[in-house]
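Subject: for your reference before the review

Hello V.,

The reviewers asked for a structural picture of the protein, and I figured it would be easier to keep everything in one thread rather than splitting it across files. Below is the amino acid sequence we used in the manuscript, unchanged from the supplementary table.
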Amino acid sequence: MLADIVVLDRDVLTIPAAGILETQVVYTILNGKLLYHRGEGFPGLAD
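And here is what came back from the structure prediction:
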């Protein structure tokens, strides 16, 4: 399964390589629906 968009908790293009291993997914959106969210976020996105 491929996601439409994944929101990460940091910019993996600008951090040191070792920091990539600590990166966490904040949101995953597939087919326009929020499938996963970690912690507090944007109210109203989830059905």
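For the response letter, the relevant points are probably these. The mean pLDDT is 83. The two ends are 20 Å apart (CA to CA).

Happy to draft the paragraph if you're swamped.

O.
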